[in-house]
Amino acid sequence: MVHFIKSANIDIDLSDSYNSLKVDQSGGACPLYHDHVENYIFINDVFSDKDLQKIIKIGEASKLSKGLTSSSYNPDIRNSFVNFLYPNNITSWIFERLRSAIVGVNESYFKFDLTSLEQGLQFTRYEAPTQHYSWHIDRGMDVGIRKLSLSIQLSDPEEYEGGDLELSFGGDPVVVPKQKGLIALFPSYVLHRVTPVTKGTRYSLVCWVSGPPFR
To answer: Which residues, 6+ apart, have CB-to-CB distance to 113 below 8 Å?
Structure first.
């Protein structure tokens, strides 16, 4: 288990000012406080090309299993191969690099109460012609308290076609750039998918940062 941020206690002031809320033209109430949580953030330069190749070799060093959904295999929903990585003398540098990146991004853009990468890192391989992962969120019963999701592009975009990571907030989805080494960070309640890989092989590294329940 990797711990990196102390849990913070937050007091909520239920002041009398709530009684003065006014209804705006959209049918909602004018907020006392504005929500500054970002929907997503993209960062790069956390891992070099050499680092990314090393991660792929580490991920492929052990036998990969079929990706499951709710403890069962359903290729119509999820069709990929996965291998979980945990901290050891071979992988500790990956966790430490991610820890540093997560702390900085979270403090600036999400401000979630985060504690650990207790579920490890999910190394994923998508192969042509149809492997994919349909629309889903990373939160749910029996999957741990996932609060922040990360997806790292390990493959060079010229090595595959399709395999777009898309985020949905209503309307047209946000397509994450296929930039090698790019890390997409987003709240684990965000709807997202990986479209079918139609040519080549796509590698990614996914993790979920845990913390106390949202409240």
So the answer is: 5, 7, 8, 10, 147, 211, 212
Q: State the average pLDDT over residues 193-203.
A: 98
Question: Which pLDDT score, from 0 to 100, does residue 7 have?
Answer: 45
What's the chain's Rg over C-alpha atoms?
Answer: 19
Token readout for 102 is 């997560």
Place of tokens 């036998």: 63
- Other beta carbons within 10 angstroms of residue 186's beta carbon come to 24
Is the predicted pLDDT of residue 33 greater than 90, yes or no? no
Residue 143's pLDDT is: 84
Residues in the chain: 215
- What is the pTM (predicted TM-score) of this model? 0.85
* DSSP, res 92: H
Return the amino acid letter for 94: I
